[in-house]
Write a structure and sequence with these properties.
This protein is mainly alpha-helical. Helix content is 42%, strand content 8%.
Amino acid sequence: MGSVVRRGSRDDVKYYVKYKDSDGRWKMRLSHQPTKEQAKQYLREVEARVSREQIGIAEPEDAPKVGTLMDTWAASLVNRNAADDRRRLTKHLRPVFERKRLAEITLAAVMNWIDAQRRWEDARTRKRLAEASIRHNLNLLSRFFSWAIERGHCAINPVRQIPQGRRPQQAQKRDVPWLKDDAMVRRLIHALPEPVGVMFYIGNRSGLRTGEIVALRMADLEFLHEGIIRARYSYDGPLKEDKKGTGKMKWVPAAEDALRVLGPVLDRRRAQGAGPEDLVFPCANRDGSWYRKEFIEACWEAATKKLEVDLTWYEATRHSFTSRNLEAGASLDEVSAALGHSSPVVTKRYYDHFIRKSFSAGLRAGLGLRGDEGARADVIAIDKPRPRRKRGSEST
């Protein structure tokens, strides 16, 4: 027995009919009826069609294809990672769903798509798609369906129907390799084209994200003599931590030689007439806009292949910054603040293995054995207890 579901706001009420179609699946569709009574009558007509082994609600011939709707949605994206979302949409979602209609993308279709992604190989890296990438693609599909529901194109988000525990899970990595050799850092800086080499230096020494590096303004590097760098933007939007768009900024440490390394870059930009709010690293091929993440990663892959370094850009920059400082004994609070994490708990979640291996000299000093004369440098012999004599035995 079907039912009528009320959705929408008080001023814009929408009635959906939920019914079991002729294929045995439960479906919910917008009734386009102004009142609940009329929606019930519409539901009875739908169920009558199903009883005659017909499709409950036939898909309109002029219903837009998913590809058209995805193009409309992609053009409206204004979030911080909009460019990355559009790239993923083009690469992973459109080829699979663009010729379908929304009603054809069911839970089964989504689960089959997830299974297929686990068998895919990236044509460029020849590596299978990671669970984290699959989860990212799934979240992107869910966001698209949420947008489609808000605009009345469909009523159900099939991604939300995935059973608990069946979504792709990103396993937390422990002891991920990081760049410890400063000589290799210098070699990578010289192997990378300008200004990507300087960007890598900032990421490795200060822990900024890629989007934060490419979005640095001239005024953000005016504090190098104080040993700090200011970050206010990520690409052309706010920082990742700035959820409400209130203009939040953060401060990160600058290396001792940062002024010597970055000084020529700043002098060259000033000679070009750059003002305080102009980009430090403008891309000439993009009319002075910020560098794209894909270009930086392509440069990184070429340099690491040449130098035989098996590390990703993230592992060699932000991850290496965090690992190097925690291993050196920097406090968790200080490192967490430099990373821009909302709480040290977030940093501890991923770098607990460093923190657990860092014990102060004061703690270790109280762990040694002490003899009657106090602490000794040599190993203190421990007297073994005498064996108990059996009852009734005589000493010889």
